[in-house]
Amino acid sequence: MEMELMTYVGLVAGVLTTISFLPQAIKTWQTKSTKDISLAMFLCFCLGVVLWVIYGFYTHNLPVFLANFATFVLAFSILVCKIKYG
Amino acid sequence: MEMELMTYVGLVAGVLTTISFLPQAIKTWQTKSTKDISLAMFLCFCLGVVLWVIYGFYTHNLPVFLANFATFVLAFSILVCKIKYG
Question: What is the ipTM of this complex?
């Protein structure tokens, strides 16, 4: 029972950490202002998330694959804005 | 052999996504400028990471616990700056 609860805690945790990048992406798309965002953070983060996607794919871990694929799309779009707008 | 490689890929992925918050935290501490950072992102992300810490603790998953504990310290310090400097 406690493990079942923890599975839900893990699922909610994964959803929250993934969708958290959506408001930042929307803000960045709208304002086109990225001065306060760290380029090093999003370069390093996107590279890490790509490795999570590869890990999820090759270990047949669908939740890890899907959550990180969605995170990558959002984080990469923020990275592109940062490179474009500086 | 392939699974062993994937374990290393997962470890590097975890280290990268965790330490990526360090350059953002340093930038935020130094500039005290957080206009372009989304409050909703860091609220949502910190809550998700707290749930990952709880998940790692109760499932006795030390890598998940440690990686997310470190991520929380960094992300929460950025959230505090965002609330303080707006």
Answer: 0.91
